[in-house]
Amino acid sequence: MTKPTIYHIPVCPFSQRVEILLELKGLRDQINFVTVDISKPRDPELLKKSRGTTALPIMELETGEVIKESLVILRYVEERFADRPVAQTDAYKRSVERFLITRQGEFAMTGYKFVMNRDRSKTDELREAHLAEYRWLNNELQHFAPDGPFVFDDFGLVECVYTSMFMRFWFLEYYEGFTLPDTPDYARVAAWRSACMAHPAAQQVSHDEIVKLYYDYAIGCGNGALPEGRSKSSFTFDPDWRTRPMPPRDKYDRIASDAELGLV
Ligand SMILES: N[C@@H](CCC(=O)N[C@@H](CS)C(=O)NCC(=O)O)C(=O)O
């Protein structure tokens, strides 16, 4: 192997973080990306590399060492290809960056829980939990970067971490009708989110791709699990998402068939 390899699931937000960072550094060709079909049993060779865990991405170095966890991989890439820094170099600014990144897990989790829910009695509570994360971001952005649009002068490490999640959450707009309220509580984070998603370095995925692939998440089946009555996961490579129709939005009422989703 002449360069590091990242094993990832297509449209995985965690690996898109690294793709964005490489794009910003102009180094996309420095890492080999290998896609793993999540709808098939995991290759034992890959499980050996990850020492038994199934979460991706993982990055294998030329030396055979394996790095796990997207934020750790992100930092490794930043430090290994240090010529064009994307992270802040000043110690205080780095602390701001790290502080804002500390919340990415809760942000992601509230969005995924919300989309995967099919119990109408829980919808309002899950929406509110997700909105609370946006309010946290709004307050902190107002404090650290009131003028924006980015946290510092340009799209940086914090933006690498959050942008891929903002894009995944297109599935909340589509399946839950979720939008940010048009009030001052969300104005700063809404502007940040728009600037992040519009950035040229972050265009690896599209809205329709996310909505089609994540249909199974919207009916409560994550990580390639097969929904009842279906023979193919919405994450399948074949047929390609471009040839499939937009999925139905009535996730609370029923599970669409393979044929309706264009999977067979
Ligand atoms: N904390 C991990 C999360 C990675 C993760 O959840 N990846 C998903 C794909 S988007 C995955 O691998 N799911 C399959 C599995 O966990 O078996 C990271 O930041 O790298």
From TrEMBL:
GO cellular component, one term: cytoplasm
Transmembrane segments: none
Domain GST N-terminal as annotated: residue spans: 2-85
UniProt-listed InterPro entries: Glutathione-S-Trfase_C_sf, Glutathione_S-Trfase_N, GST_Omega/HSP26, Thioredoxin-like_sf
PANTHER family the record matches: GLUTATHIONE S-TRANSFERASE OMEGA, PTHR43968
Record's protein name: GST N-terminal domain-containing protein
